[in-house]
Specification:
This protein is an alpha/beta fold. The protein is built from 22 helices and 15 strands. A hairpin with a 2-residue loop joins strand 6 and strand 7.
Length: 510
């Protein structure tokens, strides 16, 4: 158990690279003085959000307290701690107003914190001053179940949010999350986490700029490389094809991991995550041959001397890179479905954000009709959990069920430009959503969606990842003259590392 706790700490440190990908666009200071109250003045980033607040509900001036009527006196508090991140908080506040109207004996305290993810483990282990629901960014949460820190949620999944004639929460949920929500505690297997968002990864681009120059959205890798050359030519080098947040390497994963999925296929990548032997890292055969192919494609695009990225991109964080896109310094950026909401206050007037799926390279898999298999890498699956020692566990479960109502799912999509991983109809929303939101929904609804789920005897070894040493992407950007890294050398290093460590990992789990 001590080993698992130590590994958890290491995992949380590593997670910071990825967790920052859905990083904050607004913080608590943004909420402090903009005003609210039952009059409905705007608190969040979207104008008119107050029109979706339930009638008769009061919201405090800092946006944290939500209760029905004029007072919260005599009501039971439900505290929700959430990451004030890329998706903002408008969606949560709207849902909260409807919950307290339907359940007027409760009031909600919405505790937004951009750094919550790093605090969850400490708070759960201490068992003091706990929220009733935590909504952190994605990380390896399964050890929370092993340690007995979080509540098993089968009764949430068995509930019917839309009435007895409707489906259960579990029946409404996407299959990918049916696997991801499972973990083991001391007594056996159970369902411990609850989905937050359905991530969409791709390449965001300046729609008006593409229209101005007549650039076509690429489907294949060769078309993408040709587009990069055309952007540099058509703009006389004034616009870079790409900008990226080099200080936050997790964004490169979206590109590389998607290419791996396209090369190997979902079933092959799922087999990798069962870790049957060190041979899953053998670059001469699938599934790891697909990693080698993906890294080779990445190097074609962003390797040294390609000139396809804005100068200084490796020194930019996510906000700086995204602002470069909005200023027209670059035409494209690797990103996720939270981007538009995260930057809503910085969008120039008339700017049209769009999203394309990751193009296919020559080794990508095709279906029986000769068409490329459409796969969306769900990236970092953000989740919700209820502490075992939470003061209001039953109310917290009731709120999770309430969030799965069709109406509440639609509110989430309306204010985040993306879906939650449940079955619900977004057709009536889409004509009022942005082009970017519609692109993200198109990618999600027309793809096989994938999130990584570790299985097998080694599933709790946090060191196991699709690369075992450092991330390859920064090394490949700087090139072999920096430290000798090439795609071939990198994947062979992973194979050697796996073979050297495998028996120790097996021994550690008994």
């Amino acid at each position: 158990m001590k080993l698992l706790k130590k590994l958890l700490v290491l995992a949380l440190a590593a997670m910071m690279v990825i967790g920052a990908t859905a990083c904050k666009g607004r913080n608590e200071d943004d909420l402090g003085n903009s005003g609210t109250g039952s009059s409905g003045s705007e608190i969040g980033g979207y104008e008119g959000v107050e029109n979706d607040y339930a009638e008769g509900v009061t919201i405090s001036t800092n946006g944290k307290e939500v209760y029905f009527g004029d007072s919260k006196e005599g009501k039971t508090r439900l505290k929700i701690a959430y990451v004030e991140a890329g998706f903002g908080s408008d969606w949560l506040r709207v849902i909260a107003t409807h919950f307290v109207k339907e359940n007027p004996d409760y009031w909600l305290y919405l505790d937004g914190d951009p750094g919550l993810t790093e605090l969850v483990s400490t708070q759960l282990s201490a068992g003091r001053n706990l929220a009733d629901i935590y909504m952190p960014l994605a990380h390896d949460w399964q050890t929370y179940a092993i340690n007995g820190w979080i509540e098993e949620l089968s009764d949430v999944y068995n509930a019917k949010p839309d009435g007895e004639a409707g489906q259960t929460v579990y029946e409404k949920m996407d299959d990918t999350w049916k696997e991801y929500c499972v973990a083991n505690d001391a007594t056996g297997e159970g369902k411990y986490s609850y989905p937050w968002s359905a991530g969409v990864s791709g390449i965001a681009y300046n729609g008006k700029m593409f229209e101005q120059y007549g650039w076509q959205v690429p489907t294949t890798w060769d078309e993408l490389l040709a587009l990069c050359a055309k952007i540099k030519l058509d703009t006389n080098g004034k616009v870079a094809p790409f900008v990226y947040p080099g200080l936050i390497g997790g964004y490169f994963d979206f590109l590389g991991y998607t290419s791996w999925l396209q090369n190997t296929g979902i079933e092959g990548v799922k087999d990798f995550w069962t870790f049957p032997s060190a041979e899953v890292y053998n670059p001469e055969k699938q599934p790891y041959l697909g990693v080698k192919n993906a890294l080779e494609s990445f190097t074609e695009l962003f390797g040294p001397n390609t000139g396809n990225a804005l100068k200084g991109s490796m020194s930019k964080n996510h906000t700086e890179a995204q602002l470069s896109l909005l200023r027209g310094e670059a035409a494209m950026i690797i990103n996720g479905s939270w981007l538009e909401t995260e930057m809503i206050r910085d969008l120039p007037e008339g700017y049209e954000m769009r999203m394309m799926r990751i193009p296919y390279d020559t080794t990508a898999k095709k279906d029986e009709n000769g068409e490329f298999v459409k796969i969306n890498y769900g990236m970092t699956p953000d989740f919700m959990i209820i502490p075992k020692q939470a003061a209001q566990k039953e109310i917290a479960k009731k709120f999770l069920v309430f969030m799965a109502k069709d109406e509440m799912l639609k509110y989430f999509t309306k204010y985040t430009s993306t879906a939650r991983p449940f079955k619900y109809d977004t057709a009536e929303l889409r004509e009022n959503l942005s082009a970017f939101a519609n692109d993200c929904l198109d990618i999600y609804t027309t793809s096989e969606n994938f999130i990584a789920v570790k299985k097998g005897p080694l599933k709790n070894i946090n060191a196991l990842n699709w690369y075992l040493t450092s991330s390859p992407f920064t090394l490949l950007v700087y090139g072999p003259e920096n430290d000798g890294t090439t795609p071939d050398r990198f994947v062979r290093l992973q194979y050697q590392t796996a073979k050297g460590e495998w028996q120790r990992w097996l021994d550690s789990v008994g």
